[in-house]
Amino acid sequence: MPGITPNLWFDTEAEEAAEFYCSVFPNSKITAVSRYPEGGPREAGMVMTVSWVLDGEEFTGINGGPEFKFDEAVSFAINCADQAEVDYYWEKLTADGGEEGPCGWLKDRFGVSWQVIPAGWEEVYTSGDPARAERAMQAMMGMKKLDLAALQAAADGA
Question: Cα–Cα distance between 38 and 110 in angstroms, integer?
Answer without folding.
Answer: 27
